[in-house]
From TrEMBL:
This is histidine kinase. Keywords: ATP-binding, Kinase, Membrane, Nucleotide-binding, Phosphoprotein, Transferase, Transmembrane, Transmembrane helix, Two-component regulatory system. Its EC number is 2.7.13.3. One of its GO terms (molecular function) is phosphorelay sensor kinase activity. It comes from Leucobacter chromiiresistens.
Length: 400
């Protein structure tokens, strides 16, 4: 992964640091270089030689400012400048590449290692080590190998500097990669949460409506069969088409929910609550499904997420009973308002036995329901006897 693939926030942080480092180097190292050239040489340098060396070193410093946007080009340019400096001999010093301003080359190496892939990074390291060999060779020729300990010290020091700059750059790249991955994971988690939100909303709202539509159509067919029009095959076929269309829509909806779904999701923005339960019960009632609502105690105020959770508990329990229990059947819904909590209970009498569970039903509703109630600060209990009973306990808000 190259530097351009990192988030812009991470790139800006590194760029500002490199500009500061390049500025500090040119402010501190360049004056030391000038002093070194003027004092270290046993004889004053010629004007042309002095100008040549200073020009190369100033250009090397300048590349430090360009390495932020073009690290490879800056490193190549810096390597060419260092090659010219390596074979420029300064009396009393040796290779001009040993002057203080040459430290700017380490910034170029660090930048490339911290921003480019492993192939480019290793290529830069090899280039730097080859440069050490050339500098050592130039100094050895200038001193005629008279001071081998000094040559050894210079060589070891240069190799250590090159390795340190490269290693620090590689570590910086790994650190930035780790931060980038964390940012990617955070973004993917947010996308998954949003997908799960869509999944839950589809299931809670559309699935219930389709289930009730199927139940009403089948109940109407039974009523029609017992009336004067019982011998009308056209009416019977029409009702069957309505029910089958609803079943097909349910299968497609479940498939989409299974594709989008994620069991971990935050609550949806409340669109219904306890006040809508009575309308839900009335709408779901049919000739084959008798649903009654009982309210005990004084209604209290619920937090928005608990209010929505109470509605979804009734909606999901009624939907599942209609979907999975053979009619005729009875469903009892009760709201028990207590001092610190409200208890929502939905139970069915088992009807005429269970319907065959659809092969494409993934149980997303109950999984989401448990999580929704838990996030609202409540508990959900599912029990199976002759029929199913769903019991949710949700906290009420304290009076102000």
């Amino acid at each position: 992964m190259s530097d351009r693939e990192f988030p812009s926030r991470l790139r800006r942080r590194t760029v500002s640091g490199e500009i500061v480092a390049a500025t500090i180097m040119i402010v501190l190292a360049l004056p030391l270089t000038v002093v070194g050239l003027l004092q270290a040489a046993p004889e004053p340098l010629s004007h042309g030689q002095f100008t040549w060396i200073i020009t190369l070193l100033v250009l090397l410093h300048v590349t430090g400012f360009f390495c932020t946007g073009r690290p490879i080009a800056a490193f190549v340019g810096g390597s060419v400048l260092m090659l010219l400096l390596a074979f420029t001999i300064v009396p009393g010093i040796g290779s001009a590449a040993l002057l203080p301003s040459s430290v700017a080359y380490l910034l170029l190496l660090w930048r490339l290692a911290s921003s480019q892939n492993r192939r480019h990074s290793l290529g830069a390291l090899i280039t730097g080590l080859l440069g050490v060999g050339l500098i050592t060779a130039a100094s050895a020729v200038q001193t005629a190998f008279s001071d081998r300990m000094t040559l050894l010290f210079e060589t070891v020091s240069l190799i250590a500097a090159i390795l340190a700059a490269w290693a620090l750059g590689a570590l910086a790249r790994q650190s930035r990669l780790a931060e980038y991955r964390r940012a990617q994971e955070s973004m993917q988690h947010a996308v998954s949460e949003e997908r799960a939100r869509i999944s839950r909303d589809l299931h809670d709202v559309v699935s219930h409506s389709l289930t009730v539509m199927i139940a009403q159509a089948e109940a109407a067919r039974i009523v029609t069969e017992s009336s004067a029009s019982r011998n009308s095959p056209e009416a019977d076929a029409a009702f069957e088409r309505v029910a089958e269309t609803g079943r097909e829509a349910m299968r497609g909806l479940r498939s989409m929910i299974h594709t989008l779904g994620d069991p971990d999701a935050s609550p949806l923005t409340p669109v219904s609550g306890v006040d809508a339960i009575a309308g839900l019960v009335e709408h779901a009632n049919s000739a084959e499904h008798t649903i009654e609502l009982t309210v005990q105690g004084t209604p209290r105020r619920l937090a928005p997420d608990a209010d929505l959770a109470a509605f979804r508990v009734v909606q999901e329990a009624v939907t599942n009973a209609i979907r999975h229990v053979r009619p005729p059947m009875r469903i009892d819904v009760s709201l028990d308002w207590q001092k610190t909590e409200t208890v929502v209970t939905v139970g069915d009498d088992g009807g005429q036995g269970p319907l065959r569970r659809a092969a494409d039903s993934h149980g997303t509703g109950l999984i989401g329901l448990v999580e929704r109630v838990r996030r609202a600060g409540g508990d959900l209990d599912l029990r199976k006897g002759h029929g199913w009973r769903v019991r949710a306990t949700l906290p009420v808000e304290e009076s102000s």
